[in-house]
Amino acid sequence: MAETFDHIVIGGGSAGSVATSRLVEHGKCKVLLLEGGHHHRHPLLDMPPGVFKLLSNGSKFFKDHFSVPQPQLNGRKAKIPQGNVLGGGSTVNGQAYVRGRPSDYSEWNDILRGNNDAISWDWPDILPHFKRLEGNKKFNDELHGSDGKLIVSDPGHVDDVARWFVQAVQAQGEPFNPDFNGHKQRGVGYFQFTYDQGQRVSAAYAFLDPLKNNPNLTIRLQSQVQRILIENGRAVGVVYKDKSGSEHTVRTDGEVILSAGALITPKLLMLSGLGPAEHLKSHGIKVVEDLPGVGQNLQDHPDVSVVAKANGPYGYWKQDRGWNMIRNGLEFKLTGRGKITTTGLEAACFINPTDPEAEPTHEAYCIPVMYLNEEQLKTIPEDYGVSIQMVLLKPHSRGDVRLASNNPADMPLINPNFLADPRDMDEMIKGLRYFRKTMDTRPLADKIDKVVAPLDMSDEGLTEHCRNVVKTNFHPAGTAKMGADGDNMAVLDARMRVRGIEGLRICDMSAVPEIPAGNTNAPAMMLGDRCADLVLGDL
Ligand SMILES: Cc1cc2nc3c(=O)[nH]c(=O)nc-3n(C[C@H](O)[C@H](O)[C@H](O)COP(=O)(O)OP(=O)(O)OC[C@H]3O[C@@H](n4cnc5c(N)ncnc54)[C@H](O)[C@@H]3O)c2cc1C
Question: Which residue has a Cα nearest atom 35 of ligand 1?
Protein backbone atom coordinates (compact mmCIF):
# COMPACT_ATOMS: atom_id res chain seq x y z
CA MET A 1 0.00 0.00 0.00
CA ALA A 2 1.40 3.37 -0.98
CA GLU A 3 1.73 5.97 1.78
CA THR A 4 -1.07 8.53 1.62
CA PHE A 5 -1.01 12.23 2.58
CA ASP A 6 -3.62 14.98 2.61
CA HIS A 7 -1.49 16.92 0.11
CA ILE A 8 1.83 16.46 -1.67
CA VAL A 9 4.03 19.44 -2.53
CA ILE A 10 6.71 18.95 -5.21
CA GLY A 11 9.70 21.26 -4.72
CA GLY A 12 10.46 23.08 -1.48
CA GLY A 13 11.63 26.35 -3.01
CA SER A 14 10.38 29.88 -2.38
CA ALA A 15 6.78 29.14 -3.34
CA GLY A 16 6.64 25.49 -2.22
CA SER A 17 7.99 26.22 1.28
CA VAL A 18 5.35 28.87 1.89
CA ALA A 19 2.51 26.76 0.49
CA THR A 20 3.60 23.77 2.61
CA SER A 21 3.85 25.78 5.81
CA ARG A 22 0.40 27.33 5.37
CA LEU A 23 -1.23 23.96 4.68
CA VAL A 24 0.39 22.40 7.75
CA GLU A 25 -0.06 25.34 10.08
CA HIS A 26 -3.43 26.76 9.13
CA GLY A 27 -5.01 23.81 7.38
CA LYS A 28 -3.76 21.26 9.95
CA CYS A 29 -3.20 18.99 6.95
CA LYS A 30 -0.80 16.07 6.70
CA VAL A 31 1.62 17.22 4.03
CA LEU A 32 4.52 15.54 2.25
CA LEU A 33 7.11 17.91 0.79
CA LEU A 34 9.41 16.28 -1.76
CA GLU A 35 12.53 18.36 -2.39
CA GLY A 36 15.12 17.28 -4.93
CA GLY A 37 17.98 19.21 -3.34
CA HIS A 38 19.91 19.33 -0.09
CA HIS A 39 19.40 20.69 3.42
CA HIS A 40 19.57 24.47 3.64
CA ARG A 41 21.80 25.00 6.68
CA HIS A 42 25.41 25.64 5.67
CA PRO A 43 27.68 28.54 6.79
CA LEU A 44 28.17 29.79 3.22
CA LEU A 45 24.42 29.83 2.65
CA ASP A 46 23.69 31.48 5.99
CA MET A 47 26.03 34.45 5.51
CA PRO A 48 24.93 36.83 2.75
CA PRO A 49 28.10 36.98 0.60
CA GLY A 50 28.84 33.25 0.96
CA VAL A 51 26.64 32.26 -1.91
CA PHE A 52 28.83 34.06 -4.45
CA LYS A 53 31.67 31.74 -3.49
CA LEU A 54 29.39 28.80 -4.31
CA LEU A 55 27.82 30.22 -7.47
CA SER A 56 30.86 29.85 -9.69
CA ASN A 57 32.31 26.71 -8.09
CA GLY A 58 29.97 23.93 -9.17
CA SER A 59 28.40 23.68 -5.71
CA LYS A 60 25.86 20.94 -4.95
CA PHE A 61 23.45 23.67 -3.81
CA PHE A 62 23.03 24.82 -7.43
CA LYS A 63 21.76 23.05 -10.49
CA ASP A 64 23.42 24.69 -13.48
CA HIS A 65 21.12 24.64 -16.47
CA PHE A 66 22.47 25.63 -19.88
CA SER A 67 20.30 27.05 -22.61
CA VAL A 68 20.32 25.87 -26.19
CA PRO A 69 22.71 28.06 -28.26
CA GLN A 70 21.37 31.60 -28.44
CA PRO A 71 21.88 33.09 -31.92
CA GLN A 72 21.29 36.60 -30.53
CA LEU A 73 24.14 36.00 -28.03
CA ASN A 74 26.70 34.99 -30.66
CA GLY A 75 25.67 31.35 -30.25
CA ARG A 76 26.46 31.23 -26.53
CA LYS A 77 24.75 28.69 -24.28
CA ALA A 78 23.49 30.82 -21.41
CA LYS A 79 24.14 29.38 -17.95
CA ILE A 80 21.04 29.53 -15.74
CA PRO A 81 21.84 28.35 -12.19
CA GLN A 82 18.89 27.46 -9.96
CA GLY A 83 18.76 26.47 -6.30
CA ASN A 84 19.12 22.74 -5.58
CA VAL A 85 18.37 22.99 -1.90
CA LEU A 86 15.47 23.36 0.50
CA GLY A 87 14.27 26.94 0.09
CA GLY A 88 15.20 26.81 -3.62
CA GLY A 89 16.08 30.22 -5.01
CA SER A 90 15.54 31.90 -1.65
CA THR A 91 18.45 29.89 -0.19
CA VAL A 92 20.95 30.84 -2.89
CA ASN A 93 19.77 34.26 -4.06
CA GLY A 94 20.99 37.83 -3.62
CA GLN A 95 18.25 38.36 -0.99
CA ALA A 96 16.94 41.65 -2.42
CA TYR A 97 13.33 42.00 -1.27
CA VAL A 98 11.34 43.42 -4.18
CA ARG A 99 7.69 42.79 -4.97
CA GLY A 100 7.35 44.37 -8.39
CA ARG A 101 4.79 47.13 -8.69
CA PRO A 102 0.99 47.30 -8.34
CA SER A 103 0.52 47.52 -12.12
CA ASP A 104 2.17 44.07 -12.52
CA TYR A 105 -0.73 42.53 -10.66
CA SER A 106 -3.39 44.70 -12.34
CA GLU A 107 -1.99 43.45 -15.66
CA TRP A 108 -2.43 39.86 -14.49
CA ASN A 109 -5.93 40.68 -13.32
CA ASP A 110 -6.82 42.07 -16.76
CA ILE A 111 -5.46 38.90 -18.36
CA LEU A 112 -7.25 36.55 -15.96
CA ARG A 113 -10.66 38.04 -15.36
CA GLY A 114 -13.59 36.69 -17.31
CA ASN A 115 -13.76 33.15 -15.96
CA ASN A 116 -16.92 32.43 -14.01
CA ASP A 117 -15.12 31.69 -10.77
CA ALA A 118 -11.97 33.74 -11.40
CA ILE A 119 -10.64 35.41 -8.29
CA SER A 120 -9.23 38.91 -8.38
CA TRP A 121 -5.45 39.24 -8.86
CA ASP A 122 -5.62 43.00 -8.56
CA TRP A 123 -3.11 44.70 -6.29
CA PRO A 124 -5.50 45.31 -3.33
CA ASP A 125 -6.08 41.53 -3.23
CA ILE A 126 -2.40 40.64 -3.60
CA LEU A 127 -0.96 43.10 -1.09
CA PRO A 128 -2.39 41.24 1.97
CA HIS A 129 -0.35 38.15 1.02
CA PHE A 130 2.88 40.13 0.93
CA LYS A 131 2.00 41.81 4.23
CA ARG A 132 1.07 38.56 5.96
CA LEU A 133 4.44 36.97 5.14
CA GLU A 134 6.55 40.04 5.87
CA GLY A 135 8.32 40.78 9.14
CA ASN A 136 9.76 44.15 8.22
CA LYS A 137 12.18 45.56 10.76
CA LYS A 138 11.73 49.14 9.56
CA PHE A 139 8.32 49.67 7.97
CA ASN A 140 4.92 48.95 9.49
CA ASP A 141 2.22 50.70 7.53
CA GLU A 142 -0.50 50.21 4.92
CA LEU A 143 2.04 48.65 2.55
CA HIS A 144 4.16 46.60 4.95
CA GLY A 145 3.74 43.92 7.56
CA SER A 146 5.96 43.63 10.61
CA ASP A 147 4.64 40.41 12.20
CA GLY A 148 5.36 37.90 9.44
CA LYS A 149 8.05 35.22 9.60
CA LEU A 150 10.00 36.54 6.62
CA ILE A 151 12.34 39.02 8.25
CA VAL A 152 13.08 41.91 5.90
CA SER A 153 15.66 44.48 6.91
CA ASP A 154 18.10 47.11 5.73
CA PRO A 155 21.58 46.12 4.56
CA GLY A 156 23.90 45.39 7.45
CA HIS A 157 26.68 47.33 5.72
CA VAL A 158 26.61 49.96 2.97
CA ASP A 159 29.80 50.38 0.99
CA ASP A 160 31.02 53.85 0.01
CA VAL A 161 30.82 52.84 -3.67
CA ALA A 162 27.09 52.21 -3.20
CA ARG A 163 26.64 55.69 -1.70
CA TRP A 164 28.54 57.30 -4.59
CA PHE A 165 26.30 55.46 -7.04
CA VAL A 166 23.15 56.61 -5.24
CA GLN A 167 24.39 60.21 -5.32
CA ALA A 168 25.44 60.02 -8.97
CA VAL A 169 22.03 58.76 -10.11
CA GLN A 170 20.39 61.55 -8.11
CA ALA A 171 22.64 64.00 -9.94
CA GLN A 172 21.25 62.53 -13.18
CA GLY A 173 17.80 63.69 -12.04
CA GLU A 174 16.33 60.66 -10.28
CA PRO A 175 14.67 61.08 -6.86
CA PHE A 176 15.98 59.26 -3.81
CA ASN A 177 13.55 56.43 -3.11
CA PRO A 178 13.52 55.23 0.52
CA ASP A 179 11.45 52.13 -0.30
CA PHE A 180 11.28 50.30 -3.64
CA ASN A 181 8.16 48.52 -2.30
CA GLY A 182 6.57 51.83 -1.34
CA HIS A 183 4.18 54.09 -3.20
CA LYS A 184 6.55 54.62 -6.12
CA GLN A 185 9.04 52.25 -7.69
CA ARG A 186 10.95 54.98 -9.49
CA GLY A 187 14.21 56.37 -8.12
CA VAL A 188 17.50 55.38 -6.57
CA GLY A 189 18.21 54.07 -3.09
CA TYR A 190 19.02 50.98 -1.06
CA PHE A 191 17.35 47.59 -1.21
CA GLN A 192 15.86 45.87 1.78
CA PHE A 193 16.89 42.22 2.11
CA THR A 194 15.51 38.94 3.36
CA TYR A 195 17.92 38.73 6.23
CA ASP A 196 18.13 39.21 9.93
CA GLN A 197 21.30 40.56 11.53
CA GLY A 198 23.60 39.08 8.94
CA GLN A 199 21.77 35.77 8.68
CA ARG A 200 19.99 34.78 5.44
CA VAL A 201 16.26 34.36 5.87
CA SER A 202 15.28 31.86 3.20
CA ALA A 203 11.77 30.50 2.76
CA ALA A 204 12.98 27.26 4.37
CA TYR A 205 14.45 29.10 7.35
CA ALA A 206 11.41 31.37 7.82
CA PHE A 207 8.56 28.97 7.11
CA LEU A 208 9.74 25.35 7.41
CA ASP A 209 12.23 25.41 10.29
CA PRO A 210 9.56 26.50 12.83
CA LEU A 211 7.53 23.41 11.84
CA LYS A 212 10.32 20.88 12.16
CA ASN A 213 8.66 19.07 15.07
CA ASN A 214 5.17 19.24 13.64
CA PRO A 215 3.96 15.65 13.09
CA ASN A 216 1.83 16.75 10.13
CA LEU A 217 4.88 17.75 8.07
CA THR A 218 7.08 15.21 6.31
CA ILE A 219 10.01 16.61 4.34
CA ARG A 220 12.05 14.28 2.14
CA LEU A 221 15.25 15.77 0.78
CA GLN A 222 17.20 14.56 -2.26
CA SER A 223 13.92 13.15 -3.52
CA GLN A 224 13.67 13.68 -7.27
CA VAL A 225 10.12 13.63 -8.50
CA GLN A 226 9.87 11.69 -11.76
CA ARG A 227 6.21 12.23 -12.65
CA ILE A 228 2.74 12.89 -11.30
CA LEU A 229 0.28 10.00 -11.25
CA ILE A 230 -3.00 10.81 -12.91
CA GLU A 231 -5.98 8.47 -12.76
CA ASN A 232 -9.33 9.22 -14.40
CA GLY A 233 -8.40 12.86 -14.88
CA ARG A 234 -7.29 13.41 -11.28
CA ALA A 235 -3.79 13.80 -9.80
CA VAL A 236 -3.63 11.08 -7.16
CA GLY A 237 0.05 10.79 -6.36
CA VAL A 238 3.66 11.18 -7.27
CA VAL A 239 6.53 8.90 -8.26
CA TYR A 240 9.94 9.93 -6.94
CA LYS A 241 13.44 8.55 -6.57
CA ASP A 242 15.30 8.80 -3.28
CA LYS A 243 19.02 9.51 -3.11
CA SER A 244 19.89 5.83 -3.51
CA GLY A 245 17.95 5.80 -6.79
CA SER A 246 15.08 3.65 -5.46
CA GLU A 247 11.69 4.55 -6.84
CA HIS A 248 8.70 5.21 -4.55
CA THR A 249 5.04 5.97 -5.09
CA VAL A 250 3.11 8.20 -2.69
CA ARG A 251 -0.56 9.05 -2.92
CA THR A 252 -2.85 11.84 -1.82
CA ASP A 253 -6.52 12.18 -0.98
CA GLY A 254 -6.24 15.91 -1.57
CA GLU A 255 -4.11 17.83 -4.01
CA VAL A 256 -0.70 17.69 -5.66
CA ILE A 257 0.95 21.11 -5.64
CA LEU A 258 3.73 21.49 -8.15
CA SER A 259 6.43 24.05 -7.38
CA ALA A 260 9.66 22.76 -8.91
CA GLY A 261 10.54 26.14 -10.46
CA ALA A 262 9.88 27.57 -13.92
CA LEU A 263 12.41 25.28 -15.64
CA ILE A 264 11.47 21.94 -14.04
CA THR A 265 7.73 22.35 -13.44
CA PRO A 266 6.95 22.19 -17.20
CA LYS A 267 9.31 19.23 -17.55
CA LEU A 268 7.43 17.30 -14.83
CA LEU A 269 4.08 18.19 -16.40
CA MET A 270 5.24 16.86 -19.76
CA LEU A 271 6.70 13.69 -18.26
CA SER A 272 3.25 13.15 -16.71
CA GLY A 273 1.50 13.39 -20.08
CA LEU A 274 0.37 17.00 -19.69
CA GLY A 275 1.66 19.23 -22.48
CA PRO A 276 1.71 19.86 -26.23
CA ALA A 277 0.39 16.60 -27.70
CA GLU A 278 2.73 16.38 -30.69
CA HIS A 279 5.82 17.12 -28.60
CA LEU A 280 4.85 14.45 -26.04
CA LYS A 281 4.18 11.88 -28.75
CA SER A 282 7.54 12.61 -30.38
CA HIS A 283 9.12 11.42 -27.10
CA GLY A 284 6.84 8.39 -26.78
CA ILE A 285 4.85 9.86 -23.88
CA LYS A 286 1.15 9.02 -23.67
CA VAL A 287 -0.90 12.20 -23.82
CA VAL A 288 -3.17 12.60 -20.81
CA GLU A 289 -4.21 16.18 -21.60
CA ASP A 290 -3.18 18.23 -24.61
CA LEU A 291 -1.96 21.51 -23.07
CA PRO A 292 -0.10 23.42 -25.80
CA GLY A 293 1.02 26.16 -23.39
CA VAL A 294 3.17 23.91 -21.18
CA GLY A 295 6.78 25.07 -21.48
CA GLN A 296 5.87 28.09 -23.62
CA ASN A 297 5.95 31.77 -22.61
CA LEU A 298 9.37 31.50 -20.88
CA GLN A 299 10.39 34.95 -19.68
CA ASP A 300 13.48 36.08 -17.84
CA HIS A 301 15.13 39.38 -17.01
CA PRO A 302 18.23 39.73 -19.18
CA ASP A 303 21.08 41.61 -17.53
CA VAL A 304 24.15 43.41 -18.85
CA SER A 305 26.85 45.45 -17.09
CA VAL A 306 28.85 48.63 -17.45
CA VAL A 307 32.19 47.98 -15.76
CA ALA A 308 34.85 50.43 -14.55
CA LYS A 309 38.26 50.16 -12.89
CA ALA A 310 38.46 52.19 -9.67
CA ASN A 311 41.26 54.66 -8.97
CA GLY A 312 41.67 53.44 -5.39
CA PRO A 313 41.09 50.44 -3.12
CA TYR A 314 37.32 50.77 -3.01
CA GLY A 315 34.60 48.16 -2.86
CA TYR A 316 34.65 44.44 -2.19
CA TRP A 317 37.46 43.10 -4.35
CA LYS A 318 39.61 40.62 -2.34
CA GLN A 319 37.40 41.01 0.73
CA ASP A 320 36.79 37.26 0.72
CA ARG A 321 40.50 36.37 0.74
CA GLY A 322 43.44 36.20 3.19
CA TRP A 323 43.62 38.79 5.97
CA ASN A 324 40.58 40.67 4.69
CA MET A 325 38.49 37.56 5.11
CA ILE A 326 39.79 36.99 8.66
CA ARG A 327 39.24 40.65 9.60
CA ASN A 328 35.71 40.66 8.18
CA GLY A 329 34.92 37.39 9.94
CA LEU A 330 36.22 38.74 13.26
CA GLU A 331 34.28 41.98 12.89
CA PHE A 332 31.10 40.01 12.36
CA LYS A 333 31.78 37.70 15.33
CA LEU A 334 32.58 40.60 17.67
CA THR A 335 30.08 43.24 16.54
CA GLY A 336 27.56 41.47 14.30
CA ARG A 337 28.36 44.06 11.63
CA GLY A 338 30.60 44.61 8.64
CA LYS A 339 31.06 43.35 5.11
CA ILE A 340 29.89 39.84 5.90
CA THR A 341 26.38 41.17 6.55
CA THR A 342 25.77 42.22 2.94
CA THR A 343 25.45 40.43 -0.38
CA GLY A 344 27.25 43.44 -1.86
CA LEU A 345 24.32 44.77 -3.87
CA GLU A 346 23.14 47.42 -1.44
CA ALA A 347 22.26 50.18 -3.89
CA ALA A 348 19.88 50.01 -6.82
CA CYS A 349 17.63 52.12 -8.99
CA PHE A 350 14.50 51.82 -11.12
CA ILE A 351 14.52 54.24 -14.03
CA ASN A 352 13.06 54.93 -17.45
CA PRO A 353 15.77 56.47 -19.64
CA THR A 354 13.27 57.50 -22.35
CA ASP A 355 10.49 58.98 -20.26
CA PRO A 356 11.61 59.44 -16.63
CA GLU A 357 8.06 60.14 -15.41
CA ALA A 358 6.63 56.91 -16.87
CA GLU A 359 6.87 53.48 -15.22
CA PRO A 360 10.51 52.34 -14.92
CA THR A 361 11.78 50.13 -17.73
CA HIS A 362 15.19 49.35 -16.20
CA GLU A 363 16.42 48.19 -12.80
CA ALA A 364 20.13 48.47 -12.00
CA TYR A 365 22.30 47.22 -9.16
CA CYS A 366 25.54 48.84 -8.08
CA ILE A 367 28.09 46.05 -7.58
CA PRO A 368 31.30 47.33 -5.97
CA VAL A 369 33.55 44.93 -7.94
CA MET A 370 34.21 44.25 -11.61
CA TYR A 371 31.39 41.94 -12.63
CA LEU A 372 30.64 40.42 -16.04
CA ASN A 373 29.66 36.98 -17.20
CA GLU A 374 32.33 34.35 -16.54
CA GLU A 375 33.90 34.31 -20.06
CA GLN A 376 34.05 38.09 -20.44
CA LEU A 377 35.44 38.65 -16.95
CA LYS A 378 38.54 36.68 -17.96
CA THR A 379 39.28 39.33 -20.63
CA ILE A 380 39.69 42.11 -18.01
CA PRO A 381 42.71 42.36 -15.68
CA GLU A 382 41.62 41.83 -12.07
CA ASP A 383 41.47 45.08 -10.08
CA TYR A 384 39.37 47.22 -7.80
CA GLY A 385 36.29 48.33 -9.66
CA VAL A 386 32.60 49.02 -9.84
CA SER A 387 29.89 47.56 -12.06
CA ILE A 388 26.42 48.79 -12.82
CA GLN A 389 24.40 45.75 -13.69
CA MET A 390 21.26 46.64 -15.56
CA VAL A 391 18.13 44.55 -16.00
CA LEU A 392 15.30 44.96 -18.48
CA LEU A 393 12.14 44.89 -16.36
CA LYS A 394 9.55 44.01 -18.99
CA PRO A 395 11.31 42.11 -21.77
CA HIS A 396 9.27 41.37 -24.90
CA SER A 397 11.20 38.22 -25.89
CA ARG A 398 9.59 34.88 -25.10
CA GLY A 399 11.30 31.50 -25.05
CA ASP A 400 10.37 27.94 -24.18
CA VAL A 401 11.24 24.79 -22.25
CA ARG A 402 10.95 21.45 -24.05
CA LEU A 403 11.86 17.89 -23.25
CA ALA A 404 15.20 16.53 -24.41
CA SER A 405 13.86 12.99 -23.93
CA ASN A 406 11.37 11.03 -21.84
CA ASN A 407 14.08 10.25 -19.28
CA PRO A 408 13.45 12.25 -16.06
CA ALA A 409 17.23 12.37 -15.43
CA ASP A 410 17.81 14.47 -18.58
CA MET A 411 17.83 18.25 -18.26
CA PRO A 412 15.16 19.96 -20.38
CA LEU A 413 16.00 21.99 -23.50
CA ILE A 414 15.80 25.61 -22.42
CA ASN A 415 15.55 28.46 -24.89
CA PRO A 416 15.24 31.80 -23.09
CA ASN A 417 15.47 33.55 -26.47
CA PHE A 418 17.22 36.51 -24.87
CA LEU A 419 16.95 39.69 -26.99
CA ALA A 420 15.11 37.89 -29.81
CA ASP A 421 12.63 40.75 -29.90
CA PRO A 422 14.45 43.79 -31.35
CA ARG A 423 12.68 46.09 -28.87
CA ASP A 424 14.68 44.43 -26.09
CA MET A 425 18.02 45.19 -27.75
CA ASP A 426 16.87 48.76 -28.29
CA GLU A 427 16.04 49.12 -24.59
CA MET A 428 19.35 47.54 -23.58
CA ILE A 429 21.24 50.09 -25.65
CA LYS A 430 19.31 53.00 -24.10
CA GLY A 431 20.02 51.67 -20.63
CA LEU A 432 23.72 51.15 -21.31
CA ARG A 433 24.05 54.76 -22.48
CA TYR A 434 22.26 55.98 -19.33
CA PHE A 435 24.48 54.03 -16.95
CA ARG A 436 27.65 54.82 -18.90
CA LYS A 437 26.80 58.45 -18.05
CA THR A 438 26.38 57.48 -14.39
CA MET A 439 30.04 56.44 -14.41
CA ASP A 440 30.88 59.98 -15.62
CA THR A 441 28.76 61.65 -12.96
CA ARG A 442 30.17 62.86 -9.65
CA PRO A 443 30.77 61.67 -6.99
CA LEU A 444 31.12 58.26 -8.64
CA ALA A 445 33.17 59.73 -11.50
CA ASP A 446 35.80 60.97 -9.01
CA LYS A 447 36.56 57.38 -7.98
CA ILE A 448 36.87 55.88 -11.42
CA ASP A 449 40.09 55.39 -13.35
CA LYS A 450 38.45 54.26 -16.60
CA VAL A 451 35.46 52.39 -17.94
CA VAL A 452 36.60 49.00 -19.24
CA ALA A 453 33.36 47.73 -20.80
CA PRO A 454 31.64 48.66 -23.01
CA LEU A 455 34.22 50.76 -24.85
CA ASP A 456 32.50 51.31 -28.20
CA MET A 457 29.36 53.35 -27.52
CA SER A 458 28.00 53.21 -31.08
CA ASP A 459 24.80 51.22 -31.64
CA GLU A 460 26.90 48.47 -33.22
CA GLY A 461 29.39 48.46 -30.33
CA LEU A 462 26.67 48.26 -27.69
CA THR A 463 24.83 45.56 -29.62
CA GLU A 464 28.02 43.50 -29.68
CA HIS A 465 28.56 44.14 -25.95
CA CYS A 466 25.06 42.77 -25.30
CA ARG A 467 25.67 39.75 -27.51
CA ASN A 468 28.82 38.93 -25.51
CA VAL A 469 27.66 39.83 -22.03
CA VAL A 470 23.88 39.45 -21.60
CA LYS A 471 22.95 36.70 -19.17
CA THR A 472 20.08 35.66 -16.94
CA ASN A 473 19.28 37.69 -13.87
CA PHE A 474 18.10 34.33 -12.48
CA HIS A 475 14.37 35.01 -12.81
CA PRO A 476 12.88 32.41 -15.20
CA ALA A 477 9.08 32.57 -15.19
CA GLY A 478 5.86 32.00 -17.10
CA THR A 479 6.19 28.41 -18.41
CA ALA A 480 2.81 27.16 -17.11
CA LYS A 481 0.90 30.38 -17.14
CA MET A 482 -2.47 31.21 -15.68
CA GLY A 483 -4.90 32.54 -18.24
CA ALA A 484 -8.55 33.16 -19.00
CA ASP A 485 -10.85 30.45 -20.38
CA GLY A 486 -10.53 31.52 -24.01
CA ASP A 487 -6.72 31.36 -24.02
CA ASN A 488 -5.71 27.93 -25.31
CA MET A 489 -2.09 28.58 -24.22
CA ALA A 490 -3.21 28.99 -20.60
CA VAL A 491 -2.05 25.99 -18.58
CA LEU A 492 -3.75 27.13 -15.37
CA ASP A 493 -6.99 28.86 -14.57
CA ALA A 494 -7.05 31.88 -12.26
CA ARG A 495 -7.26 29.51 -9.27
CA MET A 496 -3.89 28.01 -10.22
CA ARG A 497 -5.51 24.70 -11.27
CA VAL A 498 -4.09 22.77 -14.20
CA ARG A 499 -6.76 22.88 -16.87
CA GLY A 500 -8.51 19.58 -17.51
CA ILE A 501 -7.04 17.85 -14.44
CA GLU A 502 -8.53 17.64 -10.96
CA GLY A 503 -6.43 18.03 -7.84
CA LEU A 504 -3.33 19.59 -9.42
CA ARG A 505 -2.16 23.17 -8.91
CA ILE A 506 1.03 25.04 -9.71
CA CYS A 507 2.25 27.78 -7.41
CA ASP A 508 5.82 28.68 -8.48
CA MET A 509 7.08 31.32 -10.92
CA SER A 510 5.87 29.13 -13.82
CA ALA A 511 2.33 30.30 -13.05
CA VAL A 512 2.78 33.98 -13.88
CA PRO A 513 1.35 35.23 -17.18
CA GLU A 514 3.80 38.17 -17.28
CA ILE A 515 7.06 38.52 -15.37
CA PRO A 516 6.84 41.15 -12.61
CA ALA A 517 8.92 44.32 -12.90
CA GLY A 518 11.45 43.42 -10.24
CA ASN A 519 13.19 40.53 -8.52
CA THR A 520 11.08 37.45 -8.19
CA ASN A 521 11.60 35.84 -4.78
CA ALA A 522 8.88 37.80 -2.96
CA PRO A 523 6.36 37.26 -5.81
CA ALA A 524 7.09 33.50 -5.71
CA MET A 525 6.39 33.40 -1.97
CA MET A 526 3.19 35.38 -2.51
CA LEU A 527 2.11 32.76 -5.07
CA GLY A 528 2.74 29.97 -2.55
CA ASP A 529 0.67 31.78 0.07
CA ARG A 530 -2.19 32.40 -2.34
CA CYS A 531 -2.17 28.82 -3.57
CA ALA A 532 -2.49 27.53 0.00
CA ASP A 533 -5.53 29.78 0.50
CA LEU A 534 -7.05 28.30 -2.65
CA VAL A 535 -6.40 24.71 -1.56
CA LEU A 536 -7.84 25.44 1.89
CA GLY A 537 -10.90 27.05 0.32
CA ASP A 538 -10.15 30.43 1.87
CA LEU A 539 -10.47 32.34 -1.41
C1 LIG B 1 21.64 33.09 -7.99
C2 LIG B 1 20.27 33.69 -7.82
C3 LIG B 1 20.14 35.00 -7.35
C4 LIG B 1 18.87 35.57 -7.20
N5 LIG B 1 18.74 36.80 -6.58
C6 LIG B 1 17.49 37.24 -6.24
C7 LIG B 1 17.33 38.38 -5.41
O8 LIG B 1 18.29 39.00 -4.92
N9 LIG B 1 16.06 38.77 -5.11
C10 LIG B 1 14.96 38.11 -5.60
O11 LIG B 1 13.84 38.54 -5.32
N12 LIG B 1 15.09 37.03 -6.38
C13 LIG B 1 16.32 36.56 -6.68
N14 LIG B 1 16.46 35.40 -7.39
C15 LIG B 1 15.25 34.77 -7.95
C16 LIG B 1 14.35 34.07 -6.92
O17 LIG B 1 15.11 33.51 -5.88
C18 LIG B 1 13.53 33.01 -7.67
O19 LIG B 1 12.75 33.65 -8.67
C20 LIG B 1 12.60 32.26 -6.74
O21 LIG B 1 13.33 31.62 -5.72
C22 LIG B 1 11.79 31.23 -7.54
O23 LIG B 1 10.94 30.54 -6.68
P24 LIG B 1 10.18 29.24 -7.17
O25 LIG B 1 9.41 28.75 -6.00
O26 LIG B 1 9.45 29.57 -8.43
O27 LIG B 1 11.31 28.19 -7.58
P28 LIG B 1 12.55 27.66 -6.72
O29 LIG B 1 12.76 28.50 -5.53
O30 LIG B 1 13.67 27.50 -7.68
O31 LIG B 1 12.05 26.25 -6.20
C32 LIG B 1 12.04 25.07 -6.94
C33 LIG B 1 12.41 23.92 -6.02
O34 LIG B 1 12.10 22.69 -6.65
C35 LIG B 1 13.15 21.77 -6.41
N36 LIG B 1 13.08 20.77 -7.49
C37 LIG B 1 13.44 20.91 -8.78
N38 LIG B 1 13.23 19.77 -9.45
C39 LIG B 1 12.69 18.89 -8.57
C40 LIG B 1 12.26 17.53 -8.67
N41 LIG B 1 12.30 16.85 -9.82
N42 LIG B 1 11.78 16.93 -7.55
C43 LIG B 1 11.72 17.59 -6.37
N44 LIG B 1 12.13 18.88 -6.23
C45 LIG B 1 12.61 19.52 -7.31
C46 LIG B 1 14.39 22.63 -6.42
O47 LIG B 1 15.48 22.01 -5.78
C48 LIG B 1 13.90 23.87 -5.69
O49 LIG B 1 14.07 23.78 -4.30
C50 LIG B 1 17.71 34.81 -7.57
C51 LIG B 1 17.84 33.50 -8.03
C52 LIG B 1 19.10 32.92 -8.15
C53 LIG B 1 19.21 31.50 -8.64
Answer: 11
5, β-bridge pairs: 252
- Domain positions in the chain: 1-146+216-300+397-418+475-539, 156-190+302-392+419-469
Segment 443-464, tens digit of pLDDT? 999 999 999 999 999 999 999 9
- Mutate which of 21, 82, 97 for ligand 1 pocket (most atoms within 8 A of beta carbon): 82
**pLDDT digit string, tens, across residues 101-127:** 999 999 999 999 876 678 999 999 999
Cβ 108 vs Cβ 120: under 8 Å = no
Taking each continuous run of H as one helix and of E as one strand, the counts in the chain are 15, 24
84 lines ligand 1 (CB under 6 A): yes
Contact by Cβ (8 Å): 439, 448: yes
Question: Between vectors from CA 266 to CA 262 and to CA 269, what angle results, nearest 5°?
Answer: 140
Read off the pLDDT of residues 43-74 as tens digits, 9 standing for 90 and up.
889 988 888 888 877 899 999 999 999 999 99
Nearest to 515 by CA among 433, 396, 357, 429: 396
The reported pLDDT for the residue numbered 379 is 82
Q: Between the CA of residue 243 and those of 34, 220, 228, 260, 411, what are the distances in Å?
A: 12, 10, 19, 17, 18
| Residue 404: its H or E element | none
**532 and 27 Cβ atoms separated by less than 8 Å:** yes
HSE on the CB side for 21, CA within 13 Å?
Answer: 25
Write the Ramachandran bin of 462: left for phi over 0, alpha for psi from -120 to 50, otherwise beta.
Answer: alpha
User: pTM score, two decimals?
Assistant: 0.97
Q: How far is the CA of 401 from the centre of ligand 1 (A)?
A: 16
Amino acid at 31: V
Q: CB of 363 closer than 6 A to ligand 1? A: no
Does residue 14 have its Cβ closer than 6 Å to ligand 1?
yes
CATH class for the domain made up of 1-146+216-300+397-418+475-539? alpha beta
Helix extents (H) in 308-373: 322-335
DSSP lists the bridge partners of residue 80 as 65
- Fold classification of 156-190+302-392+419-469 is Cholesterol Oxidase; domain 2 (3.30.410)
Backbone angles phi, psi at 170, to 5 degrees: -65, -40
Q: For residue 477, give the nearest of 401, 529, 385, 377 by alpha carbon.
A: 401
